[in-house]
Specification:
295 residues; mainly alpha; MetI-like fold; 2 domains; two-stranded antiparallel ribbon; 15 helices; 2 strands; flat; disordered C terminus
């Protein structure tokens, strides 16, 4: 009996179950249950969007809801595409997202590198100013940005969609905190080999920062792609509108909105983001695995 107590186990026939293992099993089951619950909570709206995009209006208002309609109405997609110039909306949104994301990443990477590795007066004060910018709501800057662009005659142009959102205080803070975790010995070895700042940034710092860069890329691209308020204010013609603004044109203010077409247009907006996530996920996982092996 003393030997059994020391082993702290329970014998069930020929199967020995340790108390620690029971706790691990319970924790695993609870984790999977919460994960499934989270997937259901997040996935239900997406499933409803996909289902409603191929339904007629009476089927959408049917209660209890029918998740898979007996007849799929694919015409909702062609109707939504023809109700507004979605081809032009796609081009405008792609241009704004690509160049806006590139500008944000460039500014975030260079400013974070300077605040981490360059020595200049009042460096900590500059970083505090960057942190203070995080506390300013973006809505506060709309009027100054609009007046500035108006004085330059840039309203309803691509620079108006891209330049005011090029600053990235959050990305600067995020990258700086990550750059501080890179061992100084690696950078010193690169300097001994004759590498300058640009070479160190391109060949040393950025490859070691792949997971955080991919994360920042996703956050920035999603934010730019889904931006609604600023493109609505900065553009005045239908030819310069973006996808989120275009979906708003499908909403009928008198209550006669064709929700099948609206959901179909929403699916067309979401699909590029899903493709981007699936593409960047591989690099994110590879970067995390490489970091774990190097550690």
């Amino acid at each position: 009996m003393a030997q059994i107590a020391r082993r702290e186990s329970v014998a069930l026939g020929t199967v020995e179950v340790r108390p620690g293992r029971i706790g691990s099993i319970v924790g695993t089951v609870a984790s999977y249950f919460l994960l499934v619950l989270l997937v259901v909570i997040i996935g239900m709206p997406i499933l409803w969007m996909l289902s409603a995009s191929v339904k007629t209006l009476p089927e959408i208002y049917t209660f209890p809801p029918v998740w898979i309609p007996p007849h799929l109405r694919w015409a909702n997609y062609s109707d939504a595409w023809s109700m507004a110039p979605f081809g032009r909306f796609y081009v405008n949104t792609a241009i704004m997202t690509f160049f806006g994301t590139a500008a944000k990443l460039f500014n975030g990477i260079t400013s974070a590198y300077a605040l981490t590795y360059l020595r200049f007066p009042k460096r900590d004060l500059v970083f505090l100013v960057v942190l203070a910018a995080l506390m300013i709501p973006p809505q506060v800057t709309i009027l100054p940005n609009y007046l500035t662009l108006g004085s330059l005659n840039w309203i309803n142009t691509y620079p108006a969609l891209i330049l005011p959102e090029a600053g990235i205080a959050f990305g600067t803070f995020l990258l700086r905190q990550h750059f501080l975790t890179i061992p100084r010995e690696i950078l010193e070895a690169a300097r001994v080999d004759g590498a300058g700042h640009l070479r160190i940034l391109w060949q040393v710092v950025l490859p070691l920062s792949q997971p955080i860069l991919v994360t920042l890329l996703l956050l920035t691209a999603v934010g730019r792609w889904n931006d609604f308020l600023w493109p609505l204010i900065a553009t005045t013609t239908m030819e310069m509108r973006t996808l989120p603004v275009g979906i708003a044109f499908l909403l009928d203010q008198e209550g006669n909105t064709q929700w099948g077409q609206v959901m179909a247009a929403t699916v067309m907006v979401v699909i590029p983001l899903l493709v981007l996530f699936l593409w960047t996920q591989r690099y994110l996982v590879e970067g995390i695995a490489a970091g774990a092996l190097k550690g």
